[in-house]
Amino acid sequence: ELIATTDYDVVVTDLRMPAVNGHTLALELLNRPARPVVVVLTGVTEPKLAKDLIARGVDDIIFKPVDQSILAAKVRALVDRRATWRPDEPLSDAPAIQSDYVAPAIASRAPVQDSGVVGGESDPSKRVKPALNPDDLANVMELIRLGKVSNRQLAEVIERIPPLAAEVFRVANGRLYNRTRKKVVDLEDALVRLGQVSTRNIALAMITSRA
């Protein structure tokens, strides 16, 4: 009743609710002219349902149990991003997230040095930039689209794509996703902060930029 008369910046909804289910509500919100950021918070771990919601445009799906501070940070980041990036704009036009963090040149679960450069190399001109294969990025996007991959499994895949891993670290340590300013050095932790939808968008942006 309220969304019929009020525009909201963000709506966080469960799926199982008494009067109308969250799937129906999410679709109604997504079809509004000035749609809000839509986040589904649920204990229903059904891959087909998650795949359907993501395909229809839901901004993020977060599964219970959830850390409330991480939930709040992710929702805040999504709202802040929407404030500067209209959903009808190409993803490649989204503003870059400013950060003073230097991502490691090679993804690793081991802690990196304060310089953010593996091996302690401090001269940017001597850093090796691994080649980026668009097919690798497409494979990551497909894994996320299918909705059957855990953050741990996804981290293991992204570790083998250093440019993508570096970008995931950069975004996860930016102001929008890292309010504590404590550097995230574990790839799985970075994926938890970002969510798989945002990770998919990063891969898509990299493909678009390369093209």
Rg, Å, rounded: 18 Å
Q: How would you describe the shape? A: globular
> Going across the major beta sheet, what is the strand order?
1-2-3
Order of helices and strands: EHEHEHHHHHH
The helical percent reads 40-55%
Which structural category do the helix and sheet elements fall into? mainly alpha
Low-confidence stretches: 89-128
How would a textbook summarize the main sheet? 3 strands, parallel
Describe this entry's structure for a reader.
This protein is mostly helical and 211 residues long. The protein contains eight helices and three strands; from the N terminus they run βαβαβαααααα. The protein has a three-stranded parallel β-sheet, with helices on both faces. β1, α1 and β2 form a beta-alpha-beta unit. About 19% of the residues have low confidence.
